[in-house]
Amino acid sequence: MTGAPGRLRGVTKRAAGLVLLVCAAVLPGLIQPESALAHRAALVRDTDPHSDGDMPMPPGGHGEVVPEEAMRPPAPTLPREGWTATADSEETQEGDQRAQNALDGDPATLWHTEWSGDGTPRPHTITIDMHRTAVVSGMVYQPRQDGSPNGRIGEYAVSLSGDGTVWGKPVATGTLADDATTKTLRFVPARTRYVRLTATSEAGGRGPWASAAEINLLGDPGGPAPGADLPRDGWTATASSEETQDADDRARNVLDGDSGTLWHTRWTGTVPPLPHSITIDMHRTAVVSGLSYEPRTDGSPNGRIGQYSVTTSLNGTAFGQPVAAGTWQDDDTVKGATFSQPVSARYVRLTALTEAGGRGPWTSAAELRLSGPADPAVHGRWSSVIGFPLVPVATAVLPNNKLLAWSAYAPDRFGGSNGYTQTAIMDLATGKITQRRVDNTKHDMFCPGVALLADGRVLVTGGSNAERASIYDPGTDKWTSTSDMNIARGYQGMTLLPNGDAFVIGGSWSQDNAPDKGGEVWSAATGTWRKLPGVPVTPILTADPAGPYRADNHAWLYAMAKGRVLQLGPSKQLNWISTDGDGSITPAGTRADSVDAMNGDAVAYDVGKLLTLGGATAYENATATNRAYTVDANGGNGKPVSARTGDMSYARSFGNSVVLPDGKVAVFGGQSYAKPFSDGHSALTPEIWDPATGRFTALASMAVPRNYHSVANLLPDGRVFTGGGGLCGDCQTNHADGAIFTPPALLNPDGTEKARPRFVGDIPAKVAHGQQLKVTTDVPVDRFALIRAGASTHSVDNDQRRIPLTPRKTGTSTYELTVPADSGVALPGTYMLFALDAHGVPSKAAILTVTPAGK
Fold first, then answer.
1. How far apart are CA 158 and CA 219, in angstroms?
2. Where in the chain is the domain with CATH 2.130.10.80?
């Protein structure tokens, strides 16, 4: 067999992916392994490089289409033969509603706790005994399907046990929506025999019951192993075969950090048969616990590994028995192999025994990584997965130590302009999550602009009801309407201005592309909007092939003194925007050598200094970058100074970043190939950037992908919440959950928390610009930082900014701090004040509001 298509020459990557999708959907089974030349010719012949893409946007429609790959299951459902279920309570007097009914495959039967007689109080438990040990990564809970809501589980916990007696801490907790849809409760894959679901509340508060129609368990998802990435400095790779004649597809490409390059076995001339192997030499001995395999991202499925084995060696000659083996699915998601136990090795060999789709005798890979046990003091630590009653597509940190989240008109899907929104609030002190449908503002707030106002309220604009604007007041726990915008928008960028007004620009997602989605300003004094005719949207557009409806989305905005705003992305062109009078927009140079970076993000880590991370040249079906840039808005002559800093280990589109109290920036999630509603090519390893070195360091891996429609927020206790992803209806890439990450600065090597400085005495709830603030800590500290509360959606959080404060020491542990007098430095609003000791360990934050002088 010759001429196998390792590359699709003459075809754009984006177009190639479209043709493969069409071929797979319309002509399944047409392309056979023996027709490789015909396959390549068909791809070139049938591809229109001028196509507008596979997700066309008619005027007035929505820019969201759920792709077919979102329907794939994320992990196999384990077979239930021989399983048994027991419960603390079951109804047997008035009906046969035993625990075993949850395993019978019939959703018409159910388990229900006792409801005749005196009943039994909560909590209620149902325990599954698989009668064998297996890797489990999630539970699928189907509420009763007989029309009655009684017993739907609200607050829950999932625990594991090897012997049915000793149970560890819950691996998943949270709150489920009060409806009959099937819920997936994910957690870090683990080997276990017993799985217990504990119901601590009934979703609707109707009674002391719990019920379930069916319960399934998910097996090994085949994703990257838990732990932390090993640094790849100095590593080399060799392979049994590599293509060098028609393409530079050498083995070394799997270690270059660029998912756009690949290793491919020889496909010109004489093609060697399977099996194929690729061997990584770390040039040092390390403890290795898993391998991560990223398939090629150029649109072709050729060479995806199916059946595989992994072996290790200390000397490169003697390889022992496989430490992992199995079969990976034929899709573009990042795969993993968790070793049976961690091993010391220098060499790790991946052997491909089959090609996943049986298309030919080839093997390919975009990237390979190895993981080892995580060190909490270096890599941080994740909480258990926290279930939400909705997919948290947007979040805002509130001044009352709560987190506001919302999805769309439904908890798990978007669509239409329904005039209401599903919301949830998480109490950060107790972990309790409550749910509410907001109807009174007649506003479906899916895909909006968000800004945190000077008084701590949350302004939400546009989205599905594209002209509407709503305000949430955490003080009264009420939503109200403010005036409609002049220009209907969705996917706009928004920021607060120094005077407390709000500026918005862009957002062609949900309405006719023809009108220019130029700038306008909301007045905090009158609650009305005024257009800025001098601020058209055209200068901020990217070169997205889908045109204006994608090109003006998700602007990165940084407000400064005198109503000026720096627009620093996602377009490579930067612009200064004035909001005075009719407004104006003037070029401010380019972001160094960066290309457009749609669905990347930016965060202000110091006064006037921002870090931009990742993104892609197009909104979707484009390879992301791993590049990061610094932008100094305080550059001379009014020109921001941009420079490339260190590269991330992972290319990321749809990632989220937060600034930490010490000025470092942590980035979470994203995918190396931008594809909405997909878990493919997920970056499950977060990274942290140090402004002192310009380098990124890998952190502990996440249990759940966080891509399109995910969020991240710094919390007042110095930890980070990240969650969401999906919102695609009846699909398997909805992530109605989140988790909290504890940064390494807070942890000792044994995982215990470090001693943290504490504020002593009262700190004023309000402080004015230019005011001196006197604080006392329980131990001497070195520095302080104000960090503005954040609001995140679609990889954008224009609210967060960090302001370091230099203290004047007035006693052993007493300090005088001066709040910046410039309201363009310290935008009015809610801030978290952190004290940091000499080792950079932060206190928990004091919450305060920065107000204009005299207010």
1. 15
2. 381-746
118 band by pLDDT with thresholds 50, 70 and 90: confident
Number of residues assigned to the chain: 855
| Residues forming the active site | 708
> CA 749 to CA 700: how far, in whole Å?
13
Helix axes 13-26, 36-46, angle to 10 degrees: 110
- Decide which of 73 and 512 is more confident: 512
Query: What DSSP letter does each residue of 486-505 carry, written as one string?
Result: SS--BS-EEEE-TTS-EEEE
Buried b (16+ CB within 10 A) or exposed e, 194-203: bbbbbbbbbb
Query: What pLDDT, on the 0 to 100 scale, is given for residue 226?
Result: 78
Statement: residue 2 has pLDDT above 60: no
Q: CA 118 to CA 170: how far, in whole Å?
A: 29
| Helix (H) or strand (E) run with residue 739 in it | strand 737-742
| pLDDT per position as a tens digit, 723-749 | 999 999 988 899 999 999 999 999 999
**pLDDT-derived band of residue 854, with 50, 70 and 90 as boundaries?**
low
Residue the block writes with tokens 């009914």: 101
Residue with tokens 């209620």: 124
The H or E element spanning position 379 is helix 376-379
What CA–CA distance (Å, rounded) separates 604 from 5?
Answer: 45
- The answer to whether residues 356 and 330 touch, using CB atoms and an 8 Å cutoff, is yes
- DSSP assignment of 115-149, as one string? -STT--PSPEEEEEEEEEEEEEEEEEEE---SS--
Residue spans in the chain of domains classed CATH 2.60.120.260: 84-218, 228-373
Please state, in angstroms and as integers, the Cα–Cα distance from residue 139 to each residue in 200, 390, 827, following that order: 17, 17, 44
Average pLDDT of span 549-563: 93
What are the pLDDT digits (tens) for 433-478?
Answer: 999 999 999 999 999 999 999 999 999 999 999 999 999 999 999 9
Which CATH superfamily includes the segment(s) 84-218? Galactose-binding domain-like (2.60.120.260)
Angle at 155 between CA 145 and CA 732, to 5 degrees: 60
Q: How far is 328 from 304, CA to CA, in rounded Å? A: 9
Rounded Cα–Cα distance for residues 219 and 639 (Å)? 54
- In CATH terms, the fold of domain 228-373 is Jelly Rolls (2.60.120)
Classified by CATH at the fold level, domain 759-851 comes out as Immunoglobulin-like (2.60.40)
Q: Is 636 left (phi over 0), alpha (psi -120 to 50) or beta?
A: beta
Cα–Cα nearest to 143, from 92, 209, 71 = 209
Distance CA 254, CA 455 (A): 50
Position 37 scores a pLDDT of 27
Determine which helix (DSSP H) or strand (DSSP E) holds 13, and give its type and residue range.
helix 13-26
Pick the CATH number of 381-746 from 3.30.70.270, 2.130.10.10, 3.40.50.720, 2.130.10.80: 2.130.10.80
Strands 829-836 and 783-788: antiparallel
For the segment 514-538, what is each residue's pLDDT rounded down to a tens digit?
Answer: 678 999 999 999 999 999 999 999 9
Residue 144: half-sphere exposure toward Cβ, Cα within 13 Å: 21
Q: Beta strands 846-851 and 766-768: pairing type?
A: parallel
Q: Which residue shows structure tokens 């990240």?
A: 722
Is residue 49's pLDDT more than 50? Answer: no
In the chain, CATH 2.60.40.10 covers: 759-851
Compute the distance between CA of residue 55 and CA of residue 775 in angstroms, rounded to an integer.
Answer: 55
Average pLDDT over residues 316-339: 92
pLDDT at position 69 is 63
Contact 438, 415 (CB under 8 A): no
Report the pLDDT value the prediction gives residue 418, as an integer from 0 to 100.
87
To the nearest 10°, the Cα dihedral for 18, 19, 23, 25?
A: 10
pLDDT mean over 620-645: 93
The contacts of residue 46 (CB under 8 Å, 6+ apart) are: 19, 22, 23
Q: How confident is the model at residue 20 (pLDDT cuts 50, 70, 90)?
A: very low
